[in-house]
């Protein structure tokens, strides 16, 4: 009868599908239409990568939906759908082509099927990653939870749930599916457990009118009603039971056996661990492995129910398994402020890429606070350039800066003058010390107050080429020139107070610069005297090209065509050139007047970096000769103008010092050295000649040292691996950045922006705009001529008041025709935020340009690593200031989670816990300890600790642990001592050199060689049969290499080198050296003098004898970096990654040059891999030198004008 019904259904002619929802003959439900539209959109997007899984409740729905989707090939091209249903379908229709789970997985992966429709029987199927999962029809609460946690659901990129509008059953199922509301629906919708619900549909069989499946009644559960457990739910409950017993998430250990020849029926045996307290359970023969597994689990649950254990499992079904199996243990971070929040943030750390964050930027309080004081008296500081034995080629007028309140003592600082270089190829500009020498207070004469104010504005405008002005009551500092030729009185440079400056000020120069016009007429009757210490301009405007006169050429006239002046070579004479290029020029009155030979005044240079260079502008050919009749003299003398060009850099250095002082007072109670703190707060991107990188290296090693000994003492039972994980909670960049943010003050003091003439914006200065003229007093601005005339600017609709009726005064212009110059004026007005067509309601309101500048000054974008590096650099500055005590205090100020260690005495108090003097280490161990004491020249106060340092993990016993924990702190101690030694000896070297030196000294190879030279390898206690020959072979080989290197060094007249670099040592040798150093520290009750003495006597001479800057000069990495730097190239790096080899500890290193890999190598450590990769790349570069020219074009790219060039070299460090 059943087969006849099947044949009848197959022979039935179903009508065609009509999809239009608005058509009267539409025969498809809205849910199917929505499903089709969703699938069509995903298929169009994914193309050949499209995969979808549709979850249905019954196998009838699955079969029907599969047929419908395959018939919609015109709408869904490429659709290949199959249904995965339960074993009941095979019984119902044995002749059909049914899909097994194995077939579904294979065909879904290779694309034979791209849409898989499954019922709940496929939940445990392992599927590859697919595009979308769609829940087609409603599930009850438990089924939704089971689907969410199933293997089939895990592969979906997106899970879409289709529900019918107004269908309360679907809406309840949707609410149940939500994780947040799932608990509410389980506990509040019904007081019973999910397992107690009598569900009408729990299988994929829609043709069963009544659920006749067996179930277990759990009368003793904590629910209000008796719970039912069906066979489908038994495996999940049983897995929870064994996981809770084992305190770890486990799966069922199921073993299957086929009971017939065709492998159609299977038996399943579930094996239990001893902790479960149950015998193995075996099922009857079932038509599939899954069915036999469910049956065996069901039988085991019956046994649990007889023991009264199943009720608690059902009651805890809604609890996460992780919460039931996790064993909580006390942490050293318990009670630390901010650590709970750090844990939450750490979860988000891996969810999004860490980058940067906007922080408030600290403005200097000193200047704004000074406005509370009157502008008389003023407190001057002489700007003194101390060149030492060098002589500047040009004359610089001595200026003084005057402030409303006395400035604190400012240490001398460096500016760099490339004009003092002995050769043009010299990479580093010569430094000149700038000293700010305080003088007696100065009362500005009332009649001179306006001139002082205007002179300061003139200097600022000259240095920046911007139309700055500042209201007199808002000006925080002033500038005044000293008389030409004025020098400091003898002996005053080193004194705290110099004589008064009242009679030394050049008031004539002040009056000239403070005049209404920015230029003076040129007296052609006395040209020789007129051009002395003067600046010449060929246009009557403030912002234009400025020239330094060299001499008067009486042998040339305007009718001459000088051969050494390229600018006029296409014209008959200089006069013809002027007629062609100058707008409105008709000629000169005196065609026989001499010419002035000039040289263009260089543009202001950022002299904060030793890599500064003058920019050569090749776009325009400068003038070499000027006609005096059309020239004017600038209002500033040439010597004063030169010093004015230094003011942006001088004030930047001054403000850096003042900001570091404010940071010191606000955060560190004024206890840190301000010079070191200033370096620690400066990022390399500021390009000011120093940065935090050296101090960061020192602070990083100190923090590693501190965190290691803190964890050693606080976690006495933790192993090396656990302590390493805990140490990352303290020293990682994420931790440092997090705690710096939590304290909230340090990031705002970090200096990351370049400073110089182009960036200088003095406090309270504004950009002048003509619309401000009606509300400004004439003394507050420089108006060239009466303010009444209006000019009609080109490209502007209405006339606008200008400074003197000449549109060129609003902008620093070059030799352009009138139309272009007018366009620039319009652009300047628009850029300033003021429309020229209608005046603003508030003429003194900040323009858009100024608002952007103010907003930019108030915040800065800092990278996460930059904040962490600054925190480490501050620790380095603290150590240099006050050694261990100061550095520990700064750790607490920065909020690092080491609050238990309030002082170094904390370690001494905990020291007795580690001595174990009651343990008898035996005569053999004692003999080895005494031998090591003789080698070190240091007596161990507690031999047990020394014996532990010599014990290999293969010989570990409960009474005598191995050396891993001592090696953990010994590694950090040696790292810190080595960096401290390097910093003391080579602290003035670039950070890349210091990193390279450190990596060479604390590498496993160097420490192993040192251990062999001392003889420590002879006293390792171990029970490993293969370790002895390995150690002996290495010791013999490295000793031979040492002898060969010493002989070669003596013959070649050089220092001994790193003879061990080409050998890969057994790690146990470096571990023993580190463990012995750690044992000295612990045995001495954490007194640092013991290990410092041993290091200075034994390790320091060894390092200095074999490792130095001269020996590292042959390092292939160093040579490669130097080759790249000589080309002006910065696009090179060494990239370290985990090697794809059988040994998971091996490291791969690639030398990448402009995105191309020149060398690749694999080694046991990053130092070995990087050296090998660099050697391969260096050999290739030497064999194919043209590869540099092909890949690198950096040398041909001109640097940005006024921007110094620096090279940030990253040299990989050794993994300890």
From TrEMBL:
Give me the ranges of the annotated region Disordered: 171-216
Q: Does the keyword Phosphoprotein apply?
A: no
* Keyword terms, alphabetized: ATP-binding, Helicase, Hydrolase, Nucleotide-binding, Repeat
Q: Which CDD domains does its entry note?
A: RIBOc (cd00593)
Q: Does the keyword Transmembrane apply?
A: no
Domain PAZ, chain residue ranges per copy: 509-610
**Identification of the protein by name:** Ribonuclease III
Query: What species is given as this protein's source?
Result: Calocera cornea HHB12733
Taxonomic lineage: Eukaryota, Fungi, Dikarya, Basidiomycota, Agaricomycotina
């Amino acid at each position: 009868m059943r087969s006849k019904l099947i044949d009848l259904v197959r022979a039935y002619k179903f009508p065609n599908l009509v999809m239009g929802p608005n058509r009267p003959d539409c025969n498809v439900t809205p849910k199917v239409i929505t499903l089709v539209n969703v699938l069509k959109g995903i298929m169009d997007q994914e193309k050949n990568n499209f995969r979808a899984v549709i979850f249905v409740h019954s196998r009838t729905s699955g079969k029907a939906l599969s047929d419908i989707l395959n018939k919609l090939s015109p709408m869904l091209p490429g659709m290949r759908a199959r249904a995965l249903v339960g074993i009941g379908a095979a019984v119902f229709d044995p002749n059909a082509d049914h899909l097994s789970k194995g077939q579904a997985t294979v065909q879904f992966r290779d694309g034979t099927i791209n849409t898989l429709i499954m019922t709940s029987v496929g939940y445990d199927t392992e599927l590859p990653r697919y595009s979308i999962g769609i829940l087609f029809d409603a599930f009850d609460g438990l089924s939704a939870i089971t689907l969410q946690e199933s293997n089939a659901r895990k592969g979906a990129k997106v899970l879409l749930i289709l529900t019918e509008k107004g269908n309360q059953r679907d809406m309840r199922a949707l609410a149940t599916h939500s994780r947040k509301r799932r608990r509410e629906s389980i506990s509040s919708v019904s007081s019973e457990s999910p397992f107690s619900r009598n569900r009408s549909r729990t299988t994929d069989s829609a043709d069963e009118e009544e659920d006749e499946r067996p179930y277990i009644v759990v009368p003793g559960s904590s629910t209000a009603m008796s719970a039912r457990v069906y066979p489908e739910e038994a495996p999940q409950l049983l897995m929870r039971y064994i996981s809770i017993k084992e305190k770890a998430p486990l799966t069922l250990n199921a073993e299957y056996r086929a009971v017939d020849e065709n492998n159609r029926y299977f038996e399943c045996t579930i094996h239990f661990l001893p902790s479960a307290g149950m015998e193995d359970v075996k099922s009857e023969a079932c038509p599939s492995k899954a069915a036999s597994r469910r049956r065996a689990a069901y039988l085991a649950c019956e046994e649990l129910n007889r023991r009264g254990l199943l009720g608690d499992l059902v009651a805890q079904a809604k609890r996460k398994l992780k919460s039931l199996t996790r064993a909580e243990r006390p942490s050293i971070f318990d009670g630390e402020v901010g650590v709970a929040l750090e844990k939450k943030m750490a979860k988000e750390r891996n969810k999004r890429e860490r980058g940067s964050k906007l922080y408030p930027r600290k403005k200097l309080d000193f200047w704004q606070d000074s406005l509370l004081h009157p502008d008389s008296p003023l407190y001057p500081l002489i700007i003194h350039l101390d060149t030492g034995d060098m002589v500047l080629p040009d004359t610089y007028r001595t200026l003084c800066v005057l402030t409303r309140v006395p400035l604190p003592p400012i240490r001398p600082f460096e500016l760099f003058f490339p004009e003092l270089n002995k050769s043009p190829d010299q990479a580093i500009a010569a430094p000149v010390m700038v000293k700010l020498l305080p003088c007696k207070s100065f009362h500005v004469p009332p009649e001179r107050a306006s001139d002082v104010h205007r002179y300061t504005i003139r200097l600022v405008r000259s240095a920046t080429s911007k139309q700055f002005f500042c209201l007199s009551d808002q000006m925080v500092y002033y500038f005044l020139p000293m008389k030409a030729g004025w020098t400091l009185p003898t002996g005053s440079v080193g004194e705290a107070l110099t004589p008064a400056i009242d009679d030394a000020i050049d008031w004539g120069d002040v009056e000239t610069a403070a005049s209404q016009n920015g230029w003076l007429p040129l007296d052609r009757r006395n040209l020789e005297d007129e051009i002395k210490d003067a600046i010449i301009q060929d246009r009557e405007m403030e912002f234009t090209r400025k020239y330094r006169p060299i001499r008067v050429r009486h042998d040339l006239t305007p009718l001459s065509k000088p051969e050494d002046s390229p600018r006029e070579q296409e014209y008959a004479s200089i006069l013809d050139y002027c007629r062609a290029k100058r707008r409105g020029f008709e000629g000169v009155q005196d065609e026989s007047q001499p010419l002035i030979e000039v040289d263009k005044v260089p543009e202001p240079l950022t002299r904060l970096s030793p890599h500064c260079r003058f920019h050569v502008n090749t776009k325009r050919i400068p003038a070499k000769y000027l006609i005096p009749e059309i020239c004017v003299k600038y209002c500033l003398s040439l010597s004063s103008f030169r010093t004015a060009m230094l003011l942006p850099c001088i004030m930047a250095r001054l403000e850096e010092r003042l900001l570091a002082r404010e940071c010191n007072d606000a955060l560190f109670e004024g206890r840190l050295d301000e010079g070191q703190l200033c370096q620690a707060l400066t990022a390399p991107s500021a390009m000011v000649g120093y940065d935090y990188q050296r101090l960061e290296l020192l602070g990083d090693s100190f923090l590693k040292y501190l965190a290691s000994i803190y964890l050693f003492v606080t976690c006495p039972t933790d192993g090396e691996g656990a302590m390493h994980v805990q140490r990352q909670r303290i020293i990682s960049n994420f931790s440092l950045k997090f705690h710096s943010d939590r304290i909230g003050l340090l990031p705002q003091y970090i200096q990351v922006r370049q400073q110089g003439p182009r960036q200088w914006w003095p406090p309270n200065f504004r950009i002048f705009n003509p619309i401000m003229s009606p509300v400004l007093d004439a003394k507050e601005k420089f108006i060239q001529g009466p303010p009444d005339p209006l000019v009609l600017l080109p490209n502007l609709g209405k006339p606008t008041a200008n400074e003197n009726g000449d549109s060129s005064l609003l902008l620093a212009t070059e030799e352009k025709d009138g139309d272009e110059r007018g366009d620039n004026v319009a652009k300047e007005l628009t850029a300033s935020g003021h429309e020229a067509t209608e005046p603003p309601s508030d003429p003194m309101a900040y323009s858009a340009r100024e608002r952007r500048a103010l907003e930019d000054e108030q915040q800065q974008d800092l990278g996460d690593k930059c904040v962490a590096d600054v925190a480490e650099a501050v620790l380095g500055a603290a150590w240099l200031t006050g050694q261990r005590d100061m550095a520990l205090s700064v750790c607490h100020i920065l909020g690092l989670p080491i609050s238990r260690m309030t002082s170094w005495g904390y370690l001494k108090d905990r020291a007795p816990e580690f001595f174990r003097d009651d343990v008898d280490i035996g005569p053999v161990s004692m003999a080895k300890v005494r031998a090591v004491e003789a080698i070190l020249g240091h007596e161990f106060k507690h031999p047990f600790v020394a014996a532990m340092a010599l014990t290999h993990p293969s010989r570990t016993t409960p009474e005598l642990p191995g050396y891993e924990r001592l090696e953990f702190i010994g590694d950090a101690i040696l790292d810190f001592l080595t960096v401290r030694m390097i910093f003391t000896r080579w602290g003035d070297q670039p950070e890349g050199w210091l990193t390279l030196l450190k990596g060479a000294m604390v590498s496993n190879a160097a420490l192993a060689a040192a251990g062999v030279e001392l003889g420590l390898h002879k006293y390792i206690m171990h029970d490993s049969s293969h370790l002895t020959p390995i150690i002996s072979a290495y010791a013999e080989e490295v000793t031979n290499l040492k002898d060969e290197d010493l002989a070669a060094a003596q013959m070649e007249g050089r220092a001994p080198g790193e003879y061990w670099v080409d050998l890969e040592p057994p790690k146990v040798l470096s571990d023993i050296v580190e463990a012995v150093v750690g044992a000295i520290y612990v045995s001495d009750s954490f007194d640092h003098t013991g290990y410092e003495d041993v290091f200075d006597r034994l390790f320091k001479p060894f390092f200095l004898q074999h490792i130095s800057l001269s020996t590292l000069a042959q390092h292939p990495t160093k040579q490669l970096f130097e080759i790249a730097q000589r080309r002006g190239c910065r696009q090179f790096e060494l990239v370290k990654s985990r090697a794809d080899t059988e040994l998971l500890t091996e490291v791969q290193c690639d030398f990448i040059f402009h995105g191309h890999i020149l060398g690749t190598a694999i080694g046991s450590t990053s130092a070995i891999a990087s050296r090998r990769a660099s050697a391969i790349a260096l050999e290739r570069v030497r064999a194919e030198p043209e590869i540099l020219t092909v890949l690198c074009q950096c040398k041909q790219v001109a640097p940005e004008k006024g921007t110094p060039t620096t090279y940030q070299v990253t040299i990989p460090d050794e993994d300890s």
